[in-house]
Input
Amino acid sequence: MQVYLVGGAVRDQLLGLTPHERDWVVVGATPEEMQRLGYRSVGRDFPVFLHPETAEEYALARLERKVGPGYRGFVTEFSPQVTLEQDLERRDLTINAMARRADGSIVDPFGGRADLERRLLRHVSPAFVEDPVRVLRVARFAARFAPLGFRVAPETAELMRAIVRAGEAAALVPERVWRELERALGEPRPGAFFETLVDCGALEVVMPELAPLWAPTAPAAHAMGAAALQVAATAGDAGPVRFAALVASLPAVQIDSLCARLRAPNDYRELAALAARLGEHLHGGGGALPSVLAQDPARVLELLESADAFRRPERFGAWLRVLSARAIAGGVPPATAAEFAARLGTAAERAAAVRLGPADLAGAAGPQLADRLRALRLEALGRA
Output
C-alpha cells in the first residue's frame, strides 16, 4: 500500500501558498484493509476514508468511465491494480494532477509543474469534455489565480466551448451551479469567474439572469456591477455582500428567479433583493450616494425604515457595505463612501436606542405607540 498527497495541496505548496486542506490517494489497498487499519468509511459513490487521528480524507485510487450525460453520468472503478498515474489522469487540470511521495518528491506525469510556471490552466486529457462541472471549476480557478497571472490555455478554452455546444452545461443541477458560484464569489478576483463563463458561452446557459451584466452593450448601472463586485472582494466583504453588489441593478424579478432556481441561501437572496429595491429607490441603480443625510430627519428615518434597519440591523449593515461598494465603483471616493456609511449607521443606532417610557405606554393602543416611537426617533435624529 502506497500513500500520496495529491491535488490542491501539492499545487499550493509549489506556489508557496498554505493549503487549506490535504487530500490523499492510496494505491494498492482494498476497503477492507483500510478499515482494519482504523480508517472510517465515508464515501458514498467510491471508497473514501477518514484517517483515525487527523480525520483527513484518504481515497482509494480509482478510474471513472462516462456512461451517460451530465456530471452524474459516470461509473467509478477501483481496485488495488489502479495506478497513481491512472488516478491523476482523471483529474481536471494539470496543476491539480500532481502528487507528492512520502520522501517529498513530486509525481507529475502531465506537466503540472511546468504549467504552474507558465501560469496556465490546462486540461489533463481529452476526457475533460466528459464532465460539465469542469467548466465551472476552471472558471473558479481563474477567479482564484488571476491575481497570480494565470489564464485558461487556449486549447482548454476550446474544449469548454465544446462542452457548452454539446448541451452538457445544461445538464448541471442548480445545487452544483450555486456551490461553484458561491465559492467563486469568495475568490480574490471573482469577476474572472463570470468572464471565463462568458468566453465559453456557459453563463447564458447556467445563469441567464446574469448575462445582461456582462453584455458588451450593458447600461452603465449593469456594467458597474462587475466593478462593485471587485470593490467588495478587495474589502474582504462576505459572499452575500459581493453577490448583492454585483446584481443590485437587475430587476427584482430576475434576482428572485436566479436565487429561486439555484436555491440560494436566504441571506444572499434577501440582501440582493434589498439592495435592488433601495438602489432603485435612492438613485436609480447608479453609483451616486443619496443626499438624505443633508435633508431633514424624516428623510433619514424613511430610509432606515425602508432598509428595515431596526428589525434587521445586521442585514442593514451588510446593505451599507453593498451601497459603499457600488458607490466606489461609480466613482465616489472611498473615504466619502465610508463616511456616508458611518453616518447612516450612527443614525440607525441613535434611532434604534429610543425607548418608550411609562407615560408613552399608558393607555396607548398599537398604532398610537408606533406613532409615538416614530416621533421620538425623529427627535433623536434631529438632535444629531
Summary: The CA atoms of residues 115 and 161 lie 21 Å apart. The first strand starts at residue 2 and ends at 6.
